[in-house]
Design brief:
- With 245 residues, the chain is an alpha/beta fold.
- The protein has one domain: Ribonuclease H-like superfamily/Ribonuclease H (Nucleotidyltransferase, domain 5).
- Helices cover 39% and strands 18% of the residues.
- It is built from seven helices and six strands.
- Helix 5 links the parallel strand 5 and strand 6.
- The longest helix is centred in the C-terminal third of the chain and has 25 residues.
- The N and C termini lie close together (12 Å).
């Protein structure tokens, strides 16, 4: 429904039977306490899709927490160990302040796993975490994941084949397969839908726990729509913006 704040949500609930059931601040606190359970639900739904494939895609996108001009005086997430930093998005040719969202999805565009890191951390470092989430298959990424070390390490220990497009000045250059390029674009479509439908770049949280709770809620809602589309309504999997009823 593109409701991005608890205040807006409770405005919708006025006059319904849900209004007297819970107060807004209590709802917000309870949502944070249920973080682990929400993640368990997300993983359960994700596994129902990922068991059909062994082809996955890895990518990252900016997750700003405030406007760039306010970054130096911002106190958002300042008390947490993993603090926001300045970063640059190469595809958008822009700078931002916050975190970088790393994600792995399967070839059907269903999120498999994800993590947050400070904005300045290079994409290739996320491949360390991939070893804890995948066991076999093909992992497709962009040029930000070029690494001979991780390519050998993932294949040797977990039988994961890392496939990334080569730079044209690399030795023994081989063009990237169009089929793999088409699959890789699906995670970019996911990111675009998160921005458009779920207001990913809009942050109303003040603490890191509040931030990750909101992001997890959006991803879980995203996967829930995919699940309902595919298993219940028999609609195309990624018709995210179409009303379910």
């Amino acid at each position: 429904m593109s409701i991005n704040t608890e205040l807006q949500l409770f405005c919708y609930l006025k006059g319904t039977y849900l209004e007297p059931m819970i107060e807004r601040s209590v709802y917000n606190k309870r949502l944070k306490k249920l973080f682990d359970y929400t993640e368990a639900i997300r993983k359960c739904i994700s596994q129902k899709f990922t068991e059909f494939t062994d082809v996955f895609v890895v990518d990252s996108m900016p997750t700003p927490i405030c406007k760039y001009s306010r970054a130096k005086r911002s106190n958002i997430c300042s008390t947490y160990d993993i603090q926001p930093t300045f970063g640059r998005c190469a595809s958008q040719k822009s700078k931002y302040f916050g975190y970088k969202f790393h994600a792995v999805c399967d070839k059907n565009a269903v999120f498999h796993s994800f993590d947050l890191a400070p904005a300045h951390i290079h994409d290739v470092n996320y491949l360390k975490d991939v070893k804890h989430n995948l066991k076999h298959g093909t992992l497709i990424g962009d040029r930000g994941y070029i690494s001979a070390y991780y390519q050998v390490d993932l294949f040797t220990h977990l039988n994961i084949s890392l496939s990334v497009p080569m730079r044209k000045n690399q030795h023994n250059y081989i063009p990237f397969a169009k089929a793999k390029g088409k699959i890789r674009k699906r995670i970019e479509t996911n990111f675009s839908q998160l921005h458009g439908q779920f207001s990913w770049a809009t942050n109303h949280a003040k603490s890191f726990l509040g931030l990750v709770t909101r992001l997890l809620s959006k991803i879980t809602a995203f996967i829930m729509i995919q699940y309902l589309n595919f298993f219940v309504f028999k609609k195309p999997l990624n018709k995210i913006k179409v009303n379910l009823a």
